Amino acid sequence: MLLAQISDLHLDGTERATERARRTMAYLRRLPIDALLVTGDIADTGSPAEYEEAAALFDLPFPVLHCPGNHDARPAYRKGLLNEAASDAPVNSAHRVGDALILMIDASIPGEDPGFLAPETLSWLDEQLAAADGPALLAFHQPPVKVGHPIPDGSTLQNAADLDRILDNHPHVAAILTGHAHTAAATTYHGRPLIVSPAVTWTLRLPFEGEGLADLDADPAVAFHLLDGDQLITHFRIVR
Ligand SMILES: [Fe+2]
Ligand SMILES: [Fe+2]
Asked: Can you give the pTM of this predicted structure?
């Protein structure tokens, strides 16, 4: 199974954001991808026009599974991307791809940057995972760990202990996939692979790389995940 992951498009109506997103979709469109996962910060301000653009970009020959980030706004997200009535409830969705269960999880707190798994999201996660026995992937926006830069490290997932309990209760969770940090990164979390997707919009400069938060010249990048049983192998590619 071939999954692709992108994150942090930050569509803001500018030609720059549009060009980078279009370039990424043109690159992905020609590949035999089983599903594309988009881990949040799809919009930059959360306006209806930004989701209108996202919906057009996500018109691809494979399923596009997505979840919100701290720059997204649930009501406009629901209307623009899901054709649902505007609502402030978390935007969680479950998907079967092959024998895998992919859970796109809303870890956003409306109006705030850190992540949080709301009580209703945690009970939904428990139910979904209890009902499936194949490998499961959890995808959400804010990493549950620090990545080595004070900006993303100031807005990690706040209730990681609740995530730990979910992972303890459901050993078939094969990996955790996040975004938010704008840097391709890999570690383990609670015994599972934790992959942080690169961003489409700009790349985080780590403190040892010098001054300035954002490398605006770095090309967009994507992660490809091969899931073999419960083993995840990730390859990163730059989109030129
Ligand atoms: Fe972002
Ligand atoms: Fe973010």
From this structure: 0.98
